[in-house]
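Q: Can I see a sequence and its folded structure?
A: Here is a first one.
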Amino acid sequence: MPPLLVINPHNGVPAYRQLMDQLKLQIATGVLPAGTELASTRALSAELTLNPMTISKAYNLLEREGVLERRRGQTLVVAERSSGDAESDRLAHLRDHLATAATMAAQLGITRPQALRIFRETLDATAAKSPPAP
């Protein structure tokens, strides 16, 4: 069962897409490692109070993408990924978020040098708060 999934019905993104994005992020960050069994469609639909078809759609699309795989008995698990694929997934998530930030910067009339300075400052502030890597 995924640790935390939150579906916002008011943000304009379809629920199945929110579910897919959150599961992909949890997989990319290692919260859901390879081999982790996912909740059944019925159980997750009850937990999130979503239509079971919404859960099924998200699961099926993730399976087609190779993110999830079915095991004997039709259990869905997180698929094994190479370290290169995992790195690509993490970078893709970052690019998606930075694209949103870049659009916002343009809409706010923030120049490229200003935006880069703010990003560097944010990275530095985050690094200062984070414990050192092992």
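Q: Show me another, different protein.
A: A second, unrelated one:
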Amino acid sequence: MKYEIFVKDKDKTKTCLESKHLMDGLYVYDNLVPKGCHNGACGLCKVKVHRGDYKKCKMNRKHISCEEESADILLACKTFPRSDMEIEFIGRDSSKEKSQVYVLGN
């Protein structure tokens, strides 16, 4: 089945097959989804689901906490539509990422 997906942050509605996760289904449209890994490793496709039903796969805890998942914040590459949806890409929170500082010796 095909579902209508409204991408709130882009103010566009496109279709996505239920057999495709949101990233793959929407990737074919220019400038609609971030360029990411499509397998849950990068976290660039973090979305807030505002409305609609979906099936989800296991989320990468590096990018999606249990609390976020309970609040319908998911990875688009691990989320399959089961109805028309409204989503918003919010990306990963870079403030949570640990930066590594390298100090060179004398």
